Amino acid sequence: MLRTRNSRTKRSRTRTGAVALAGLLLALLTAGCGKEGSPPVKGPKPEALPHYKVDTGFELPGSTTWKKAKRRGHLVVGAKEDQPYLGEKDPATGIYSGFDIEIARMVAASLGFGQKAVQFRTIASANRETALQNGQIDYYVGTYTINDMRKKLVGFAGPYYLAGQGLLVRTDENDIHGPQDLDGKTVCSAAGSTPYQRIAADYPKAHLVAYDTYSICVDNLLTYQVDAVTTDDAILLGFAAKAPDEMKVVGKPFSQEPYGIGVPRGDNALRAALNDALEANEKNGNWKKAFEATLGLSGVPAPKPPPIDRYPAN
Ligand code: GLU
């Protein structure tokens, strides 16, 4: 697992700020979160979620991934566990929830796997490609941007959502309004992510630090170790919605991040079946219902899903 820097190495630097915020952090912690830095889990109401009809007669003999899962009896799906309203794991029950999780479940049903036959495994941004290449997971749904570089390593179904890079700061921050204000500021992102790569390439005067997850970045933001957290607006809005007195999202999105379902590269039959499943669920209303019950809770109205990109086998 990639760990660029330990989350506690810089703790002592701005002690005053840290002490001032300790109370707030404590309030957040006692509000029911499982571990330091992660917001309290307040998942979607189960009754608001759609029911996905399991296609019991479904067969996909052209997909080695599907056949392996069928023999095993369940799918193993890679996901995130600390991204509010997108992919969250309840530390008490181990149950995953969020928009990405619903996407994973709705397409699983189309592939013939009911909710009990979908096992989630948390995989950090930096480890997604290897997890798919090693067969650790059958597919991945976790704020995974489709791009040409990644398409050389894995396949993508979708996109099923269009996000854009943004900035999360503390509510007491008045100097940062966009990436142009990051010169000399410490900005945190996840290793192996496109937002990290964009800051490194386009804003070299920003002091960039990387951790495995965005929740560690948020922890560091709240204790004044970093000045901003950068990743997709969809992720940042969720963190801000859970602690609106502490954090805010500033400026306009400054990239396009089309979210795809990652599949093992070369399994084009699986990719096509997932695209069919996404399209069907967008048509029958499940996509919108799932969005409103999850990511919609961070204040984002349900957009029109982006068109599916059925790119030729590469
Ligand atoms: N969508 C971006 C990416 O795939 C950032 C979010 C993430 O790290 O999952 O790199």
Structure report:
The protein is an alpha/beta fold. Helix content is 32%, strand content 20%. The chain has helices at 15-30, 64-72, 99-110, 128-133, 148-151, 194-202, 214-222, 233-242, 268-283, 286-293; strands at 75-79, 82-83, 87-89, 96-97, 118-122, 139-140, 154-163, 165-170, 186-190, 207-211, 228-232, 247-250, 257-264. Strands 10-9-11-8-12 form a five-stranded mixed beta sheet, with helices on both faces. Strand 2 (82-83) and strand 3 form a beta hairpin. The structure holds glutamic acid. Residues 125, 142-145, 190, 193-195, 231-232, 257 line the site of glutamic acid (GLU).
Element layout with pairings:
Blueprint (H helix, E strand, L loop, with lengths): L14 H16 L33 H9 L2 E5 L2 E2 L3 E3 L6 E2 L1 H12 L7 E5 L5 H6 L5 E2 L7 H4 L2 E10 L1 E6 L15 E5 L3 H9 L4 E5 L2 H9 L5 E5 H10 L4 E4 L6 E8 L3 H16 L2 H8 L21
Helix pairs in contact: 3-9, 3-10
CATH architecture of the largest domain: 3-Layer(aba) Sandwich
Identify the bound ligands.
Answer: glutamic acid
The H-and-E topology, N to C, reads as: HHEEEEHEHEHEEEHEHEHEEHH
Question: In whole angstroms, how far apart are the ends?
Answer: 28 Å
Total strands: 13
Number of helices: 10
CATH class of the largest domain: Alpha Beta
CATH superfamily of the largest domain: Periplasmic binding protein-like II
Coarse shape: globular
Strand content is 15-25%
Strand arrangement, major sheet: 10-9-11-8-12
Note the quaternary state here.
single chain
